[in-house]
Amino acid sequence: MIPLIELTDDEWFDTYKPIKNHIDPTASFDGCMFETYGDELEFIKNQKELYIWTYGDGDDGGTYIWNGYHVVNRIGYFLTEVPFDDKFVTQIMIGEPDPECSRCLDPINIDYICESYDMVCRDCCKCGCNP
Questions:
Q1: In degrees rounded to 5, what are phi and psi of residue 9?
Q2: How far is Cα 52 from Cα 50, in angstroms, rounded to an integer?
Q3: By Cβ atoms counted within 10 A, which residue in 9, 39, 54, 118 is the most buried?
Q4: Which pLDDT value is given to residue 18?
Q5: CB of 98 within 8 A of CB of 62?
Q6: CB atoms within 10 A of CB 76
Q7: Which of 21, 26, 109, 44 is nearest to 123 (CA)?
């Protein structure tokens, strides 16, 4: 199993130094993100793998940046001045994951959290408050 390194977005920006998108200077992430189609994608695909990062949706509902070129759940790409070490998976959380029930681990709607238990869904609540 490849070890995981988790960084904040500030740590990632300071360490790897994403370059500006020269095709679309008004791109997301202060002009650094590249799109998943057209000229921007072609530009990314012609770069060295160790400099490419993927921004995408995680399985937990959060959004993340991961080292490497990935296609599944992608939102965009970054190219950095500093290469990553491919002996590690590097992950940067951008958007918080969805809350999940502490008992069944299913995603839960914040509006339906039991008042007697912290982060328990209606189906797992045993206090009788489940209408």
A1: -65, -35
A2: 6
A3: 54
A4: 98
A5: yes
A6: 21
A7: 109
